[in-house]
Write a structure and sequence with these properties.
single chain; three-stranded antiparallel β-sheet
């Protein structure tokens, strides 16, 4: 099974790039970011770069300071813990519903994805590991059939620094290790255990990201 992501608008590319810089701690509260800088980093024009920054202002990641431009707003480690707690509840519920609908063929597909993910992790192929991690979760969530919950969880996924996956210590290892328990409970068709395994996985990721940000806050 192959999953193709729809092409992103250049403004969305810009907002995703800067959002991940903020979430991964590479841009911190109080720092300024200019559209021209983003445009140069991504080899795009300044107009979509500015549109992307305006989107991040709407989302609360940036504020506009008169005559100074876009400034990064505070994003604390506690904010991250709260967001990932919410994501764990949503992801756990989606996984529980998937357990009731899963087929042996889908379990085999998850295992193929996970085998490839672990090989990428062993080779430090973090971009490929991130892609496969996204595919793993997307397949489970889509199987749940719950469109509204899937829409809700997407609002929390903005806080996952996918482009800078390897920047958060422990994240690659968590994706490689936690998924096996999720697969086994899905194979058994056990909604409660599948829910708990996915929730633990997501909270684990949130804890690692929160600790990463806390280190930057005190650096």
């Amino acid at each position: 099974m192959t999953n193709r992501r729809a092409p992103m608008r250049l403004s969305d590319v810009a907002s995703a790039h800067v959002r991940e810089l903020i979430v991964s701690g590479q841009l911190q509260a109080g720092e300024f970011i200019r559209p021209e800088t983003v445009a140069e980093q991504l080899a795009i024009s300044a107009t979509p770069a500015r549109e992307g920054l305006l989107q991040l202002q709407t989302e609360g990641f940036l504020s506009v300071e008169p005559r100074r431009g876009f400034m990064v707003t505070a994003l604390s480690s506690e904010d991250i813990r709260d967001i990932y707690d919410a994501q764990a509840l949503l992801g756990g519920e989606l996984t529980a519903r998937a357990a009731a609908a899963i087929t042996p063929a889908t379990v085999e597909e998850l295992e193929r994805i996970q085998d490839a993910l672990e090989k990428a992790a062993a080779a430090n192929g973090f971009d490929e590991e991130e892609r496969l991690n996204h595919q793993f979760h997307e397949l489970i969530y889509r199987l749940s059939g719950s469109r509204k919950i899937r829409w809700l969880i997407k609002t929390t996924l903005a806080y996952a620094p996918r482009k800078f996956f390897a920047a958060v210590e422990g994240w690659p290892e968590a994706s490689a290790q936690d998924h096996r328990a999720i697969i086994e409970h899905l194979r058994a068709g056990d909604p409660d255990q599948a829910r708990a395994a996915m929730a633990r996985h997501i909270r684990n990721a949130g804890t690692l990201l929160a600790e990463h940000l806390a280190q930057n806050e005190t650096a």
